[in-house]
């Protein structure tokens, strides 16, 4: 009897410790990125006034600087504006493609597909969500790039447009799955009420079901944004990666994620450059975190709106 | 009851179906795109795959030979990540599904775990550098990369395991408690065995996705070339996704390395699809086999 | 003192701010069947679930008052809930067998309490199934999944599962509500058989059932105990107007 009680208490402690541990990872990431990132501004080591590469950054210069050029001889520059714009431009363009496609697709899947076909389509969507991003990037590099170059008659297909199309494709599974879930939790009584008024299935779907699921669909868009803004490898392979502010769809572009991927390996450990990349990671972390928290709040709101 | 004339009513429903057809277009575009991608990679990669290709190390500056070290490295690092994340993930899921009271702390834990799932993989890579490579001095190694990947797939495992546990009817627990089982005995005998296939499905999906990840291992241990297979978890390793990336973009003779790149992409995709496939089969079996889900 | 006597004293229960049971005092005699009747939502199931502390599972529950079983307060800190639930068995509204074999369903409780193993375990399983009038129907398929049984058989299986750990008290929470009339009749027969050895408390909203099986009858309304007496008395000459209305079908 006693042994059973001890076992019961013991496992309870074991499980709760692991749950707290898992949650603490988020805090750990926050703390480490902050601790490393901050050393780009307040260096721990000696500052050599003769050597510009050891000069600490100013927060203003980092956040508002219009040029990112860590390798410049004499005066390295660490302004995140071009990178932030690069991330935002590719992501927003991707969403311009993925949102209409994703919502339309989700409505079609939720309203029109049943049984085996539905399972198969959802499976394909989920399968693609798990495709390695290097594989998708490889395809973008070899197929999409040359195709874009030919169609638009530009010298290189490795540009904003290519990155955005791939990101659109990669965020589609998220948008479709989450929207589909949102559409499917709309109570059946809404549909019955619309049918009883003589509404056609189309009118019901577009005027009744879709508006009722709007919080969940907005959450889907947020999560799609998070997926696209955080993607690294596929963008790295197809975006051209010049750290300039792109002026057209056919210019190369550098995002926050790709900058970290390209430069972390070549920056000297404990250099300002090294820590600046962590500061960049911290900004990315915050963007992803807020995107997620908003999405979560939206999903909660949708669920609540259907429970009396 | 319906005041519309019959022909107008028919017209209305006909139009309704036509409109829905337009919505099918994006789904079809998406499916065609994905199908073409798979077709393209397999068409170019399948001829490269041979017994030698998967059992030999790279030769002649990676323009010939095989990719054995990459396959081994990827499987190794994925295994390390799961050894780390399965116990923590499943235990945390049991807590959240079975024990957690409905209070602020629980909500914070849930929210944190969900947020973790949305943190970009490159951020995990940075964290891995700071904590594992530098912080606890694991250096660039299988272990550092494995742990980084483990942190990344932890929230995926928790989410699917919690879902699997929550799908077990409460009456199984009540029935056990009513004859005097402790909470743990009720969970151990009447919840876990039935949630197990669902938990396993989640683990397989996590495994498949972990194998394809590049950003978290980029600075924590993967290397362009190493002659030997990793013998100790403290060695650097080669991995399929990084190998593909390197051959596709970094190699000095891109065209010569291209067939190997296609082969690598095909092997990686086959591995990922294989584990995903098993997971899907398992999920379908659960859906049809569970007698209590009427 | 006779074993199996339940003494409920000034019991109050809240779910959050919802006052579900109000000042209930009731003395349930051993080796008899006591029915708790009342309209749905009156708190009768909640009252029943206090007796083996199943309400502990619901968060945000507050209880005042005492329930004494054989003179010992079940809410006192010394009480071992596990031991309590072993002594006070329960059968639920919907049959809830475990999705395991018939044998394993019965053996579960015996095993976790380490009451028997090997040959003796088999004998105990057989005894429990016999007590529940189920042995003859299942003896050739003990290793079939319990879900292959009919609803009525499943409910008797749940009763056997509870009998296998040799409780003193059996709580039945509307055990026949999901059963057809034939299965219900068999279950009622069984309840009457068992009362010689056990204290049985049955919750039901079906007054004919209460009249058929019970010796004592409690009528609960809106969380209050309206009337408690011998069953014949309650049905033929109730003290309270509300009981009369309920029996007359004024509310259901």
TrEMBL record, chain A:
<feature type="transmembrane region" description="Helical">
    <location>
        <begin position="12"/>
        <end position="38"/>
    </location>
</feature>
<protein>
    <recommendedName>
        <fullName>Phosphate transport system permease protein</fullName>
    </recommendedName>
</protein>
<keyword id="KW-0812">Transmembrane</keyword>
<dbReference type="InterPro" id="IPR035906">
    <property type="entry name" value="MetI-like_sf"/>
</dbReference>
<comment type="function">
    <text>Part of the binding-protein-dependent transport system for phosphate; probably responsible for the translocation of the substrate across the membrane.</text>
</comment>
<dbReference type="Pfam" id="PF00528">
    <property type="entry name" value="BPD_transp_1"/>
</dbReference>
<dbReference type="InterPro" id="IPR000515">
    <property type="entry name" value="MetI-like"/>
</dbReference>
<feature type="transmembrane region" description="Helical">
    <location>
        <begin position="83"/>
        <end position="111"/>
    </location>
</feature>
<comment type="similarity">
    <text>Belongs to the binding-protein-dependent transport system permease family. CysTW subfamily.</text>
</comment>
<feature type="transmembrane region" description="Helical">
    <location>
        <begin position="123"/>
        <end position="148"/>
    </location>
</feature>
<keyword id="KW-0472">Membrane</keyword>
<feature type="transmembrane region" description="Helical">
    <location>
        <begin position="217"/>
        <end position="239"/>
    </location>
</feature>
<dbReference type="InterPro" id="IPR051124">
    <property type="entry name" value="Phosphate_Transport_Permease"/>
</dbReference>
<feature type="domain" description="ABC transmembrane type-1">
    <location>
        <begin position="84"/>
        <end position="295"/>
    </location>
</feature>
<feature type="transmembrane region" description="Helical">
    <location>
        <begin position="272"/>
        <end position="295"/>
    </location>
</feature>
From TrEMBL, chain B:
<protein>
    <recommendedName>
        <fullName>Phosphate transport system permease protein PstA</fullName>
    </recommendedName>
</protein>
<dbReference type="InterPro" id="IPR000515">
    <property type="entry name" value="MetI-like"/>
</dbReference>
<feature type="transmembrane region" description="Helical">
    <location>
        <begin position="139"/>
        <end position="159"/>
    </location>
</feature>
<feature type="transmembrane region" description="Helical">
    <location>
        <begin position="116"/>
        <end position="133"/>
    </location>
</feature>
<dbReference type="Pfam" id="PF00528">
    <property type="entry name" value="BPD_transp_1"/>
</dbReference>
<dbReference type="GO" id="GO:0005315">
    <property type="term" value="F:phosphate transmembrane transporter activity"/>
</dbReference>
<feature type="domain" description="ABC transmembrane type-1">
    <location>
        <begin position="71"/>
        <end position="279"/>
    </location>
</feature>
<dbReference type="GO" id="GO:0035435">
    <property type="term" value="P:phosphate ion transmembrane transport"/>
</dbReference>
<dbReference type="InterPro" id="IPR035906">
    <property type="entry name" value="MetI-like_sf"/>
</dbReference>
<dbReference type="GO" id="GO:0005886">
    <property type="term" value="C:plasma membrane"/>
</dbReference>
<comment type="similarity">
    <text>Belongs to the binding-protein-dependent transport system permease family. CysTW subfamily.</text>
</comment>
<keyword id="KW-0472">Membrane</keyword>
<keyword id="KW-0813">Transport</keyword>
<feature type="transmembrane region" description="Helical">
    <location>
        <begin position="18"/>
        <end position="42"/>
    </location>
</feature>
<feature type="transmembrane region" description="Helical">
    <location>
        <begin position="260"/>
        <end position="282"/>
    </location>
</feature>
UniProtKB/TrEMBL annotation, chain C:
<dbReference type="InterPro" id="IPR003439">
    <property type="entry name" value="ABC_transporter-like_ATP-bd"/>
</dbReference>
<dbReference type="InterPro" id="IPR017871">
    <property type="entry name" value="ABC_transporter-like_CS"/>
</dbReference>
<dbReference type="Pfam" id="PF00005">
    <property type="entry name" value="ABC_tran"/>
</dbReference>
<keyword id="KW-0813">Transport</keyword>
<dbReference type="GO" id="GO:0005524">
    <property type="term" value="F:ATP binding"/>
</dbReference>
<feature type="domain" description="ABC transporter">
    <location>
        <begin position="6"/>
        <end position="247"/>
    </location>
</feature>
<dbReference type="InterPro" id="IPR027417">
    <property type="entry name" value="P-loop_NTPase"/>
</dbReference>
<protein>
    <submittedName>
        <fullName>Phosphate ABC transporter ATP-binding protein</fullName>
    </submittedName>
</protein>
<dbReference type="GO" id="GO:0035435">
    <property type="term" value="P:phosphate ion transmembrane transport"/>
</dbReference>
<keyword id="KW-0067">ATP-binding</keyword>
<dbReference type="GO" id="GO:0005315">
    <property type="term" value="F:phosphate transmembrane transporter activity"/>
</dbReference>
<dbReference type="GO" id="GO:0016887">
    <property type="term" value="F:ATP hydrolysis activity"/>
</dbReference>
<dbReference type="InterPro" id="IPR005670">
    <property type="entry name" value="PstB-like"/>
</dbReference>
<dbReference type="GO" id="GO:0016020">
    <property type="term" value="C:membrane"/>
</dbReference>
<keyword id="KW-0547">Nucleotide-binding</keyword>
